[in-house]
Amino acid sequence: MKNVANEEALYTTTLPGSAHWSLRVRRGMQLRFTDLDGGANLGLLMYNPEDLLERFNAPDTLKGQHTFKLTRGNCLYSDMGRVFASIVEDDFGWHDSVCGTLSEKALQEKYTARSYQDHHNQWTLSGEHSFLTELAKYGLTERDMAANLNLFSKVTTDDEGNLIFDASAAKAGASLTLRFEMDTLVILSSSPHPLNPAKVYPMKPVGIEMLKAPPVSDDDFCKNFRPENARAFENNRLYHLGM
User: Fold this and answer.
1) How many domains, the chain?
2) pTM of the model
3) Would you call 80 exposed, middle or buried from its count of C-beta atoms within 10 A (0-12, 13-18, 19+)?
4) Bridge partner residues of 219 (DSSP)
5) For residue 126, is it within any domain?
């Protein structure tokens, strides 16, 4: 379901494959991410820019909403019980929340490592390297790298509990929109998913649009998607009152 209000993007850009970026997103703004070619993976971390000790908490996000996957209606919780962002639009339908990011070791084992000196913008980066590079800009280190989300990557389990990457789920033009419920430092990596079986490093770009969000109403879908979400929104309200 597309949000028909305030559709004009205030800013647009494309994050190439094997790249990273970070930005501060204000409360009341939206980011729409689009898998332009199909098969992209967008790693996502979130922090409170006013208190960097507060960051996205994947376990609380999942257990609080009784889910293994994330899609429209789900909220992304901080480790203080607040909502960083709500998923208000999603036509991909299943985003990985448990597999982490591509490590430097896995990059060396799975793909041909290409350096910037030799290959310039066609170099190959791990998600680990990408996240640490962006975190360093804010005085953060590997100790601050919490579990990340992987947007546009579907991971299921078999009968034995093994994690299975579903490459057939990829589709060009799939999009997801996050509405930010508090000021948030967003860290992004377009390195491939750690379980992606591709033999050649996938260089898949992601389109990014920033939009103004409409006000959150009492009957908001995400706010009422789970009782826990309503309580987290109340924590946000108290936070913005200075309590």
Assistant:
1) 1
2) 0.94
3) middle
4) none
5) yes
- Token pair 């996205």 is at which residue? 56
pLDDT along the chain (243 residues), means of 10: 62 97 98 98 98 97 94 97 98 95 95 77 91 98 96 94 95 98 98 96 97 96 96 97 91
pLDDT in tens, 184-226: 999 999 999 999 999 999 999 999 999 999 999 999 999 999 9
Cα–Cα distances (Å) from 66 to 84, 110, 184, in that order, read: 18, 33, 24
Q: Is residue 59 part of a domain?
A: yes
Summarised one tens digit per residue, pLDDT across range 70-81 is 999 999 999 999
Question: 161: phi > 0 → left, psi -120 to 50 → alpha, else beta; which?
Answer: left
At 177 the pLDDT is: 98
Question: Residue 104 sits in which domain range?
Answer: 20-240
Amino acid symbol at 99: C
Retrieve residue 189's tokens.
């990596």
Instruction: Count Cα neighbours of 50 within 13 Å in the Cβ-side half-sphere.
Output: 9
Calpha distance 225→178 (Å, rounded): 15
Helices (H) and strands (E) in the chain — how many of each?
A: 5, 13
